[in-house]
Amino acid sequence: DVQLQASGGGLVQAGGSLRLSCAVSGDNLDDYAIGWFRQAPGKEREGISCITSRVGSRYYADSVKGRFTISDDNAKNTVYLQMNSLKPEDTAVYYCAADKIGLCFGPVVVGDFGSWGQGTQVTVSS
Fold first, then answer.
1. Per residue in 1-31, is it b (16+ CB within 10 Å) or e — as a string?
2. How far apart are CA 74 and CA 65, in angstroms?
3. Taking CA 26 as the corner, what is the angle to CA 21 and CA 29, rounded to the nearest 5 degrees?
């Protein structure tokens, strides 16, 4: 079964940047939609971005549009999330997940993703 591992989180000041990585193993990245999610303490898990390499589609939630960029490297079987202009409200645990049939044409829904990696903590200070 496909496995995912998120990494790259850390502590950064407001306005700074961070790049997260999602390493995919057990299957080809091209066969999946890969989504990025985040969850702050006491809050619901929020879908923020998605990519489907096969059709070249990308989706961003309004909360991150214009600041975050999702990309993929099929040779490395890895998806990245470049986060710029970070705000304190971006503080959360960030997760990546895989959807076998997703196309990333619309909002990223938690229930559509069946395989999840462990999260990586992102903390943005002011």
1. ebebebbbbeebeeeeebebbbbbeeeebee
2. 24
3. 55
CA distances from 11 to 40, 67, 88, 91 (A): 15, 17, 11, 9
Question: How far apart, in whole angstroms, are the C-alpha atoms of residue 73 and residue 67?
Answer: 20
Of the candidates 119, 122, 28, 18, the one whose C-alpha atom is nearest the C-alpha of residue 73 is: 28
- For 61-120, the pLDDT digits (tens) are 999 999 999 999 989 999 999 999 999 999 999 999 999 988 899 999 999 999 999 999
Structure-token pair, residue 43: 């809050």
The answer for residues whose C-beta is within 8 angstroms of residue 75's C-beta and 6 or more apart is none
* Residue located via tokens 């990025």: 36
